[in-house]
Amino acid sequence: MTTSGPAVPTLAPRDVFAALDTSSRGLAPAEATVRRERYGPNELPRARRRSWWWDLAGQFTDLFAVVLLIASAITFLAYGLQEPRDTGTLQLAVAILCVVLLNAGIGFVQEYSAERTAESLQAMVPHTCRVLRGGERQELPARDLVPGDVVVLEAGDAVSADCRLVEAHEVSVNNAALTGESDAVGRTRQPVAAGPVLEARNCVFMGTDVVAGTAKAVVFATGAATEFGRIFRLASAAPRQKTPLQRQVASMARRVAGAALAIGALLFAVRLPAGEPLVETFVFALGVMVALVPEGLPATLSVSLAIGVRRMARRHALVKKLLAVEALGSTTVVCTDKTGTLTQAEMTVVQVWAGGVRHPVSGVGYAPVGAVTDPEAVRELLRTAALCCDARMVPPSDHDGWRVLGDTTEGAILVAAAKAGLDPAAEEASTPRVTEFPFDSTRKLMSTVHGDPHGGHQAYVKGAPQELLARCTAVVWKGERQPLTEELRAAVIGANDELAAQGLRVLAAASRTLLDGRPTQDEAESDLTLLGLVGMLDPPRPEVSDAVDACRHAGIRIVMVTGDHPLTAEAVARRVGIVRQPDPTVVTGTRLDTLDDDALDTLLAASGELLLCRVSPEHKMRVVTALQRRGEVVAVTGDGANDAPALKHADIGVAMGASGTDVAREAAVMVLLDDSFASITTAVRLGRSVYQNIRKFLIYLFSHNIAELMPILAATFAGFPLVPITAVQILAIDLGSDVLPALALGAEPPEPDVMDRPPRSKRERLFSTAVMGRILFLGGIQSLGVCAVFFWHIHASGIPYADFTKDDTVYREAITMVQAGIVVSQFFNALAVRTDRQSVFRIGLLSNPWLLAAGCFGIAMMAAISYAPPLQAVFNTAPLAAADWAVLAGFGALLLAAEETRKWWLRHQRPADRREGAQ
After folding, report:
1. How far apart are CA 111 and CA 298, in angstroms?
2. pTM of the full predicted structure?
3. Is 337 a catalytic residue?
4. CA–CA distances in Å: residue 413 to residues 340, 423, 499, 508, 636
5. Which of 283, 285, 326 is nearest to 308 (CA)?
6. Minimal CA–CA distance to 561: which of 468, 643, 451?
């Protein structure tokens, strides 16, 4: 909601508080609660959810559902026109209707479940903001913001509501979400003339992000009343788009449906001249055509992708788009940041240098557990650095350990100060801050001015050693303040280089006494006394080394792209295994600026280890574009607002969930909830398995379609007057042994060697030559088996073809053998397609119990059709003897043995041939 929105930009900063009934200390907690009840949560309106029955009805508008409903209606009509009426026609009409109802039910359940899963997963990435409540700085869920709240903004933050700036230090924002202009625009706290609020330069808006600077602002609009809320309402009615993979499969299914129509027409044209009644011939052709349509294929695809999303979420990778699940399997290059992805994102001070002496610091992370060697010698250094910090340590809670609210580098300084026996909060209380000069990328310094108990003022400065040293005239050396001679300056520079060579991030700290509590920036940052250096390290994550090895085996190249110093980047890269050679290629942003596109392509084409350091967002974008130009499928990690362009441009944008900015998370298609590079490797592994599983159930479905069709064609062209398998039997197979095993194959766990194969080409189609060859191989074996048992049973009776009728016991037994043969062979076929190259016995026959249960259900249903008299009357079947089942099981085992032999041959091919034959 909004309050006094249009007038706010015209007011002076001090008048804004009065207009919004708040103060510079923010709202009192009780008042915030009252306003929360009045204005509601700071959320965009949810799209109105359709009722479940409307979603269920929508399942019947699918193209295949419409075709099947029309076919069922025609069959019912044919039953009414028959004279005498054939109950088989009625059974076929009912069976077609059952297929429609089953597919609609499965589709509805999966879509309903997918929507709920997506909602619950999105809730795992909370959006928070920093506010002042009663003078206390707090981190709150963005949905709890209310008009009158005072929010604290820093570079990289996403703005959570429409706000009026009351303090602004070199602030610029990106309003692309609202205006489409990607260039950063400056903001001011000064009043502006009346006009459209979106043009007010002293306001920031929900959905935009802070590119640079720091600020405080007062919220004047939340939720739907914001400018972003207005645009959101216009866009919320846009229809949901299908992913390219879904469109490809749907297109393929339509082509298969067209082929089924052609086959049905062919059978009608062949059988009609043979003397078959017109209505019966039409009904038969219609039933075969309907049975060959892959009605449940789109739903099965969605299930497989949804299972992949849930599996990735359980492994700390939140995928926001189903397409990303499939695309992960073809990733060839990962451009990874260093901080937080390869490392723990918990900066830890490990060395303090003061007066020519090093003081090691023990302990890792943000927990203040550890000690500083000889803490008294560095007490003033760490006190000065701690007072010149805006970050705050947050004690552990039931769900989280020690955390930093603010910059992680400052958090490391606060922890080091605590290890030295200092209490940063108490120091801040005894020497309150009077003013500050925030850090900016030009000065590379931050300064704060504090009052001391004796009425004087001190300036405390921290920043890049080279920049700070240039502003110092004295140094504390061996406990005494001395002039900064060239000899001492060289000693400081040497100490800085030694710490940097160890891969440490180095900051310097200095101070000076001031005559006035309101100095200019130049006064506060000149004539300083250097107190020493602080060397800190972001420890590598312990699981990253194994993940990097897995990527190497999977043929995925890892390129580190970081803004850090080359020495720091190389040190971390060596620790985690990205760099193993003695001389990796290290390229800085400055050198990238000198390379044209051809030179950059040549650089990236080299097979050696590559580190890109001191790079800007523009550099990262250019590198990603160049890699994609070479045909690479690129995954990019990032956590800052400046990473958003590269995250959007990459094939797979991967944002950090815990430490990343809201802007980065919005730009990415995958969010790492634990910020670990190892989760990327796991997601790639699962992405590859999802694509494999899609192919597995495609092979499973279409191979048995061949086994259903070939006996009919063989009998037709052999002159047998009846069909080896009726349309009702085919539909029973589709209902009993198609859907459930296909769903179970979609949940198949990754094969053991899935990360030992090269990445799949993004130009490779779902129905590759190898896949079609495997369908024909397995379908051909099944076809030979069922054709053999049918004609063997017919010939063994000695009855001429022309004398057979539908009520003949031999004929009923023969068509029962065909149906049971397909069902049994499908049980073995499901086991066979579980792996592409590995033996199914190596992964274990019992490792997918859902598949075994689905197969046993199909066989049990077939047994009921064979032995239960009511079902015998429906399907015109007959009881099978134990010997018949043994023969069918033998054919199924032969199918599995043939496929195992093919896999053995594939595993023993040359590597080049193996890639060509891989699925």
Report:
1. 11
2. 0.66
3. yes
4. 18, 12, 16, 11, 30
5. 326
6. 643
